[in-house]
Amino acid sequence: MTEQTQQQTTESSDGGTSTAFSPDDAKPSADAKKTSKKEKKNKAPPPGLVIKPKPTLTKAERREMQERQRAAKAATRASKASNQQQSDHTKKGGGDGNQADNTSKPLQRQQEHQVTKSSQASNGKERITNSDGAEKAALADNSLSLFSHLPQYRKMPDPYAPEWTSTLHPDVIELGMKYASGEIHGDNERCRSMMLCFLKLLDDYVLPVKSSTIDFRTHFDHQVLKLSFQFWTVECRPHSVSMGNAFTFVKSSVASLERDLPLDEAKMILRETIERYLLERLEYADRAIAQHAMTKLQNGDVLLTFGHSEVIDVLLSTAHKEGTDFYVWVADSRPLAHGKKLLKSLQNAGIPCGYVELNALTYILQQVTKVFLGASALMSNGSVYGPVGTAAVALLAKDGHVPVMVCCESYKISNKVQLESITQNELGNPEALLPKKKDKTNRPMIKVLNLVYDVTPSEFVSGIITELGIIPPTSVAVLLSEMNPQDAAFM
């Protein structure tokens, strides 16, 4: 065979012919390859052709497009399921047309209620898109969406539910009802009630039948203390910082008991520990705070306080008994109006006082010389966690160059840092802010936000008075580091 291409025709056995090619015929030459590449490279687009750039979508537009696609797919699946159910019903020959319509109605309602939320940064609204593609603009409730991460307000649990009556002590259930109804609301009062309830549980506690194989410390902690605390805080009302610190103290006291102690001796030691905690951390601490705060009082002072605080009540009563002449303005806010409780206590003690709503505070602030406030907790960065409205009083006082003193027991110090009232808070009953109407169906669609606490920045506070002395807000972290970690831990 020569190097040139040759065709060979051979006769087949049946008389036909076949053509054979050389292997070199299937391989293009190198020059041909180079030529084809140059032609493709030099090939220019036709004149007048405009290539549009690839559109770039924003994050909100991409999310909206994805949600529309999901809604379309869901609608398609729902329609297919409806058609399949109707065809199966027709094949079986069961029922009339009305029954078929009734069967498809739930699917239609499910299809209509499949909505998707798409963000619109231009107007700050929520757009609710149904499965048919029609969009309805609705104003977004910014308050509820902003505080949706907080534990929502719950109604009072059923005290006769079998899951509670079979596992909890009756005193635990009764105290939980008082927490949920607001009958017990002060931070010291809530903590004191919890510790007194633990004393009752300790008196009534008995080991199970197989007492030889059960550790009192573990059983009392998990089956009594933990279950009771979970019922109060999960089913009734979120716990305060004071309750969390006290509960941690009790758990640590139980764990520190010796395993071989007799039950009666262990219960006696634990009782003495709880009673000493109540005396030192609450009662004695309030008296010591009152003595430190009286060094800042002078005859003729016009004092301002907000709401009701047990330590403020002790301070004012002690100063009046010591003969200090002063006048007290009690600022208050709804819906709780706890300041009326302090006002009644001052009147019974014979202390001259006045009562003012929070919205009229600027009218009497010009005559105020000092502000004394209570606190629900002290954060490690010096900010004050107190009843909602405390920050407003401190802000107005700072604007008027009036010193603000915060009285707080050391067992309320938390190792957390909080800069605002959004990250951690508690939601109260929203119905308490609305006017009482017998027919609630005629009430307009109002979204209500009832916050219980707020955060006062340390810049608004002149000094913090504890049973250990008067310190600046910046020294709270130092005081926390010197305390026992089990007392400063926050649940």
TrEMBL record:
GO terms for molecular function: translation initiation factor activity. Its main location: cytoplasm. This is Translation initiation factor, aIF-2BII family protein. Residues 24-34, 59-70, 124-134 have a biased composition (Basic and acidic residues). Residues 1-19, 72-82 have a biased composition (Low complexity). Residues 99-109 have a biased composition (Polar residues). Component of the translation initiation factor 2B (eIF2B) complex which is a heterodecamer of two sets of five different subunits: alpha, beta, gamma, delta and epsilon. Subunits alpha, beta and delta comprise a regulatory subcomplex and subunits epsilon and gamma comprise a catalytic subcomplex. Within the complex, the hexameric regulatory complex resides at the center, with the two heterodimeric catalytic subcomplexes bound on opposite sides. Keywords: Cytoplasm, Initiation factor, Protein biosynthesis. Pfam families: IF-2B (PF01008). Residues 1-134 are annotated as: Disordered. The keyword rRNA-binding does not apply. It comes from Nitzschia inconspicua. It is found in: Cytoplasm, Cytosol. The keyword Ubl conjugation does not apply. Belongs to the eIF-2B alpha/beta/delta subunits family. One of its GO terms (cellular component) is cytosol.
